[in-house]
Specification:
Layout (H helix, E strand, L loop, with lengths): L1 E2 L36 E8 L1 H18 L12 H7 L1 H23 L9 E6 L6 E8 L23 H14 L2 E4 L11 E10 L4 E4 L2 E4 L6 E9 L7 H7 L7 E7 L13 E15 L5 H7 L5 H35 L6 H21 L4 H5 L3 H29 L5 H15 L3 H11 L1 H22 L2
Parallel strand pairs: 1-3
Antiparallel strand pairs: 2-4, 3-4, 5-11, 6-9, 6-11, 7-8, 10-11
Helix pairs in contact: 1-3, 4-7, 6-7, 7-10, 8-10, 10-13
């Protein structure tokens, strides 16, 4: 519980809760997290003075039995000394015990089920006086999922095309190709790889005319490269580069413009026109390995080249199928989120924001960002940027939980065990130690819940996709 306005006594230590992460970043202290007004409830709780005194006496007696104070025999420490020496600890134990007990009784009487940590308002806890406090918390939203099985889902065409397989094979061969310089003096022809040095200026939509000619209004950084390899006539080579480099010789300097398509992979260049200054430094040829059993065995445990090709095709097919079906399932969830409008508990949203933020920080740490650099990040802005997606993820989870009930989706113990085995292998943590740790911190239930949601998404997809 969060004691936000304790009076007459110092705030309880329970008032100060902190989120701990593996990364050394600083989080602001949120002593009274916001509650969603549509789901917020507030109750008044009381306990009479005798009950409060009894609670204090019970805790004091226990301290008397356990306290070890020089000059006093065990169990014989005066009550007055116990009360003065351990005043803060005693009050904390009474607070946690009595307040929790009275709060649970009050919500049971009102048939309320909080889904957020209660915030204690105007808490008055003094030995010999009545206990009074208000508790504010969130409850789960009420919403109906009628019609969930009427959502339209289009099943994607997942068959791997010959072109896609050829691209997959080209990537493997290219990775194992050797690049050698062409010694003879000649011009570049199709099939060659030009080694170039380049500098490119993105044409600005806003340009000004000066005495020296046309200049870009903005001062964007130029695009530069050393020892870049461009395949002449390659299917992924822009036409402008093919036309400019074909027939050129080492040492030659070229000037030309290249128009990039709107769907170009590099967002900086997509849809842009770039003016290039290029110097041809050399001509190179790529030599690819023979497609035979010997090369197949270098690539892995394959008996023949045909065995490798068959497994590569299967791998590429599965990857495409999984990617397209994941997109289709995400679209299905988006439609469900749009279909059912209901408020979500702010506590759940904040948990999801923290989870997303933590995943992002882990990724940055793996990319080499230091703890000092992380501390300089604008966490308020990062949290705000995660909010909309976090709300949608919370809504999706709550909808899937309801659908799981309707469809009787369960996660069997053997399914959970397989998941734990995978986590154990990935984290290199012994399976028994992992299971014990997750059982203690509630992680097992969270994993089972998430598995149930994913399974529900799969069940619903198979039921609706056509």
């Amino acid at each position: 519980m969060t004691d936000t306005h304790a009076t007459a006594e110092p705030q309880s230590e329970a008032a100060h809760t902190h989120d701990h992460h593996d990364h050394e970043h600083e989080h602001e202290h949120h002593h009274a997290p916001a509650l969603n007004p549509e789901l917020a409830r507030e109750i008044e709780v009381e306990a009479d003075a005798d009950e409060v005194s009894k609670a204090f006496k019970n805790v004091v007696k226990r301290y008397q039995k356990l306290a070890r104070i020089p000059g006093f025999r065990a169990g014989k420490v005066p009550e007055s000394l116990i009360r003065s020496k351990f005043a803060k600890d005693i009050r904390q134990e009474v607070l946690e015990g009595l307040v929790s007990e009275r709060f649970r009784k009050a919500i049971d009487e009102r048939k309320l089920r909080p889904v957020s940590e209660p915030q204690l308002l105007d808490l008055q806890l003094i030995d010999g006086q009545p206990l009074k406090f208000k508790a504010a918390f969130e409850v789960a939203p009420e919403f109906d999922i009628a019609g969930y099985d009427k959502v339209s889902v289009t099943k994607p065409e997942v068959a791997l095309t010959d072109t896609e397989y050829a691209d997959e094979l080209d990537r493997v061969l290219d990775h194992h190709a050797t690049v050698e310089p062409v010694e003879e003096e000649r011009a570049l022809v199709d099939g060659d790889w030009a080694e170039i040095q380049f500098r490119g200026e993105v044409r600005d939509l806003a340009q000004t005319v000066t005495a020296d000619g046309v200049e870009n209004a903005s001062k964007a950084e130029p695009i530069t490269g050393e020892d870049a390899l461009i395949e002449i006539g390659g299917k992924n080579t822009l036409a402008a580069f093919n036309e400019a480099l074909r027939g050129a010789k080492p040492g030659q300097e070229l000037k030309f413009e290249a128009d990039y398509p709107a769907d170009f992979g590099d967002r900086r260049l997509a849809g842009q026109t770039v003016s290039y200054d290029v110097t041809v430094k050399g001509i190179k040829r790529k030599t690819y390995p023979e497609r035979d059993a010997e090369f197949a065995k270098q690539l892995g445990n394959y008996e023949s080249w045909e065995d490798f090709e068959g497994k590569l095709r299967g791998y590429a097919s599965d990857r495409k199928k999984n990617a397209l079906e994941t997109q289709a399932k995400d679209k299905m969830l988006d439609e469900l989120i749009t279909k059912y409008q209901f408020p979500v508990p702010e506590a759940f949203v904040q948990q999801q924001i923290e989870a997303r933020l933590d995943r992002g920080l882990r990724a940055l740490a793996q990319q080499g960002m230091s703890a000092d650099e992380m501390r300089k990040l604008d966490f308020a802005r990062l949290r705000a940027a995660q909010r909309d997606q976090a709300i949608n993820e919370v809504k999706a989870s709550m909808i899937l939980d309801r659908i799981a009930d309707a469809e009787n989706v369960t996660v069997e113990d053997n399914e959970l065990e397989r998941e734990l085995l995978m986590l154990s292998i990935q984290s290199r943590e012994p399976l028994d130690a992992l299971r014990e740790r997750l059982a203690k911190d509630g992680g097992l239930n969270r994993i089972r819940e998430q598995m149930r949601r994913e399974k529900t998404g799969d069940v619903l997809y198979e039921k609706l996709a056509s």
